[in-house]
Amino acid sequence: MIKKIDSYIATSVLWAFLIVALVLLGLDFALTFIEQIKKVNDNYTIQSLLQVIVYRLPGKLAEYIPIASLIGTLMGLGTLAATSELTVMRAAGMPIWRIGMAACQPILIVSLLGMGISEFVAPITEQKANLIEKMRNQKSGTFSVTGGLWLKVDNNFVYIDAADSSGKLYGIKIFSPNEQKLNKIQAATSAEHIKDSTWQLNSVSETIFLPDRVETTQREKGEWNVSIKPEHLFLAAQEPETLSLSQLLSYQNYLSQQKLDASKYQLEFWITVLRPIASLALVLVALSSVFGPLRSSTMGGRIFSGVLIGLAFQNALNLFGRMSVAISFPPVVGVSIPIIICLLAGIILMRRRG
């Protein structure tokens, strides 16, 4: 009998979670479409925009899991409370902790599934979306100098507009200084790794600054020798939030070996790793609210409360995380602070409820 009740509670919470996740993704899709529609032109069509938004949905789903867990628990258990089913369960001798465990089970499964999405699905789709978005400038033969990556490699300053998972680079600009003066600029539409430290540049435009004149030459192919490994060039060209856990770990280790700042990658790594714990912490807060101040509240009131708590948590996570990067503090500590606060608050309130 107890197992059937556990299954009933878990199913109620899971269905509510799925509805909330679907609504959040739908709102995100609509708002993003409205915001990005102004970018549509001959090179970046409606189809391309829709493709980009759809490719980013898996990453958004993984990101929304904690907030959807909170609101879903409030809705699922709130519905049971409104029909007095929770009261009957309590009267039958079922403790609050047992109800809490039943509610946490589907959230834990969904959170682990979210980590799988973050590792195996979202990085691939996010990188495809970024490539489509950035390549709209390449179709018209122009170069974007914003939103890409700047590197200092072998005394040269290199700009990479985008990269794909095969290691091909797009929109390359190589600035070669001579002391305080700019000596040469090489621009290429793409670059492909040949072997070791050698890359082939395609559709190359080279500008040389001489004392009395400027010379510009065009050629189909050129050679570029650079000491950084191809896989690190690809990872460097991606935003931290588009990388998988393994990629984040690999690149932050590389940056640490080179004595470079890896805090942005460490921050994103810990946000993803601790997301299941964050989801469970928010579920505890939801449980304490359902058995406390929100037990006689309307569904609209519960949803509103869940949105407020979720936004406060997300803002606290961003604030403490970015503060830890700004003051050179371990990012794991910054990310853990709001999660620990939620866990402690949930446990204390649950104990007070009985």
UniProtKB/TrEMBL annotation:
Record's subcellular location: Cell membrane
Keywords: Cell membrane, Membrane, Transmembrane, Transmembrane helix
Domain of life: Bacteria
Pfam families (UniProt xref): LptF_LptG
Topology class, membrane: Multi-pass membrane protein
This protein's record includes keyword Transmembrane helix: yes
InterPro entries in alphabetical order: LptG, LptG/LptF_permease
Keyword presence, Cell membrane: yes
Membrane-crossing segments per the record: 12-34, 64-84, 96-117, 269-291, 303-321, 327-350
Main localisation: membrane
Quaternary assembly: Component of the lipopolysaccharide transport and assembly complex. The LptBFG transporter is composed of two ATP-binding proteins (LptB) and two transmembrane proteins (LptF and LptG).
Family indicated by similarity: Belongs to the LptF/LptG family.
Record's function text: Part of the ABC transporter complex LptBFG involved in the translocation of lipopolysaccharide (LPS) from the inner membrane to the outer membrane.
Protein name (database record): LPS export ABC transporter permease LptG
Source organism: Marinomonas sargassi
Taxonomic classification: Bacteria, Pseudomonadati, Pseudomonadota, Gammaproteobacteria, Oceanospirillales
